[in-house]
Write a structure and sequence with these properties.
Distance between the termini: 34 Å
Radius of gyration: 24 Å
Order of helices and strands: EEEEEEHHHHEEEEEEHHHHHHHHHHH
Oligomer: single chain
Strand order of the largest sheet: 3-11-10
Length: 477
Amino acid sequence: MENVAIFDSPGKGRGLKATKEFWGGDVIFAEPSVAAVVFDSLLERICHSCFRQQDKLQRCGQCKVAHYCDRTCQRAGWAEHKQECGAIKAYGKTPNENIRLAARIMWRLDKEGSIMSDAQLITLDELEDHIPDMQEDDLKDLKVDIHNFLDYWPRTSKQHNIDNISHIFGVINCNGFTVSDQRGLQAVGVGLFLNLCLVNHNCWPNCTVILNHGKIELRSLGKIEEGEELTVAYVDFLNLSEERQRQLRTQYFFDCTCEHCKNRIKDDLKLGGVAEVDGVKPTEEQVKEATDYCFQMLEKMESARLNGDYHQVVKICKECIEKTEPVLADTHIYQLRMWSTLSEVQAYLQFFTDAADYSRKMVEGYMKLYPPNNAALGMASMRAGVSHWQAGEIEIGHGMVCRAYGILMVTHGPTHPITKDLEAMRMQTEMELRMFKQNEYVYHSMREAALKNKPMAMMHEPRSVDEGIKNLFHRRK
């Protein structure tokens, strides 16, 4: 494969390095999956071929499990589904996502062998499965999956020994990559991408990974020198260093030694208090008390959100913010989660002025914590831009949309559906801003008339903070 080469990364084992210079937004490589499957929880809502989210899907008439947009998608997915379809019928129930993915991988290996592409840099056998490093509970889950897999695997297919089956499940566990829907807004499945498995972690990476038109793209976030190691973030940098280390150790079985972890860079901002105002600054005890209170309220808020009681979510968030905002810094991660949730829920309830205010605070906090070209920052800026536009604050809305567009041109690229949506949004807000500057009264009159003729549709129901696109790599449940 051009552009990259395998090398021994100090303290990390195998890694990938650049064989030429790259600039922000460059696609270093693109790769289709070995296999990918829809999450168990979304089997009837996501197309099993193109991973689009549709209101009405056509169900496979044989197994009754696979769903497709139409006959075109069904035909496109038949090569992967053919053996799976018969296996599900014979099994009599739907196996979980790990078993379905392992089976699809093994059927492809049986058909094509270990080398499935000229661009492939490593075989599945060469990847680490980390089974000896697993905790006892995880090993029990693995054994259950293997037992169920053996019941599911057809007697007419090539038979494999337990070691080979265990290895594939181990590789899925620590190398499964989250597959998003067509717009990149929701995690809908899990897949295995062999070359991507070679890219090591860094909490402040020089690359990002995005799914675009069925392939993952490894994209440069800034200038990368020839010979420099290529890295991506396996976990969200918004977490404290200690929490990132815990996640990496539990899921990926290594200790991160990057500068941000060793020196706990920005941890002070993530749990800090407000800056000194008129010679007064909150004490450490006040900050700790506010932090503990905010954490407790986050748990209450999440419980109300799961129950669909969004007015209670708003009440909890506002009660918490009123008490903690004078004490906690605008970069405090618990306060940021409160602002993020409240902005999303208020947008859903169509209280757009409130939604705009809290989304702006969220973005301002993110900008002090995240790298400048970060997908989560770009998506948050887009959300804030939409909220300000909905609230009639066109100047701030256009600025936020432009910021989001600039970031996503690097992280997602110009051909990604969400970037195309942003481009249309940017042109729309730019046109409205010109109208606003020419005659503010006419602008607001036309806007009100347009909204009366076409009422604003309800926003999507708010999701958990952890359900977005921040976590690129699939977490074991």
